[in-house]
Amino acid sequence: MSSPFINKVQRRNKNLDIKPRFLAWTNNNKNKVFYIMKQNGRKSNSIEKALKLILSFQTHQPVWGVRELGAKTGFSPATVQRILQTLKRYGFVAQDMDTRQYRLGNIYFSLLHVLQSSLPISRTALPFMKQLAGSTAETVHLNIVDGTERICIESIESMQTLKASMPIGSRSPLYAGASSKCLLAFSTSDFIESYLDTITLKALTPHTITDPQALELELKEIKTNGYATSLGEHNPGLGAISAPVINHEGIQLGAISLAIPEIRYREQAHREVCLKETLRIVNTCSEMMGRQASASPNGYPEVI
Question: Which of 15, 133, 227, 253 sees the fewest Cβ atoms within 10 Å?
């Protein structure tokens, strides 16, 4: 179907592929035609569309309606509804029968268990993390490097009323917070150099390190001491202590960390106990992963 209107729009937008989606109808003796203009390029297949829908469910918006999700992804409501119904049948999403909105399904709990069981560091560290949680009464979490970010892969929340939380899957840049700085400091020299050359240090709080030279100096200090600390660098009001788990090859496998509310972190006696317990637990866990004691002050072999 063609019309002067279509020809005119096509001349103005040669890079657009204009296809009629609805036929014309008469309204008040005027013909109106609706068209959808789509840029040339590869269309998303069904699997990609499903993945885009799943990835739209985030902490800041865990629940979606069909039309909202369609507006976000650019898919028609009919396409969104069809894919969500398929995902629902397999447990990847669940639907509230009253609001008709969707959230992630419970299948991810079993998938999380599979993922954690496939990571040797997670299986090995968990018993030690429980010990650390018991001896400090603070939230304990296990983190690894994922690209240029820290990601939490295991967490044991404090039983205290006032506590700091670190949900599994939470991320942060590698320059902000004790866990992140610890992971960066004990990475390979090539990785650190490449990271510092490409990253832009943005202030997440007033206490975030944004000077590259200051960060480099702190990373060297962390490497010498064998642990990292922070207060309010990534989240205001949150203190943290972190130390690396090292294997028999001197390679960092992850970092075990404590998340501590600022009011308790500022108590020197409690902070010292937390640091002592963290280093004790991490040393024992590293030995379980084959790390041999060395003559270095922090007890860790050089990371190659």
Answer: 15
**Co-location of 123 and 250 in the same domain:** yes
DSSP bridge pairs for 39: 16
Provide the token pair at 273. 């106990």
Is residue 218 located within the same domain as residue 122? Answer: yes
Tally of CA atoms within 13 A in the half-sphere of 206 that contains its CB = 2
Cα–Cα distance list, 127 to 32, 141, 211, 247, 283 (Å): 68, 12, 38, 17, 14
pLDDT tens per residue, range 116-142: 566 667 888 999 999 999 999 999 999
Assigned token pair, 174: 């590698």
Q: Are residues 122 and 262 in the same domain?
A: yes
Q: Tell me the mean pLDDT in the region 40-53.
A: 80
Q: In this structure, is residue 297 part of a structural domain?
A: no
Residue 137: phi, psi to the nearest 5? 60, 25
CATH label of the domain that carries residue 122: 3.30.450.40
Sign of CA dihedral 222, 129, 286, 112: negative
Q: Tell whether the model's pLDDT for residue 15 goes beyond 50.
A: no
Per DSSP, 61 falls in state B
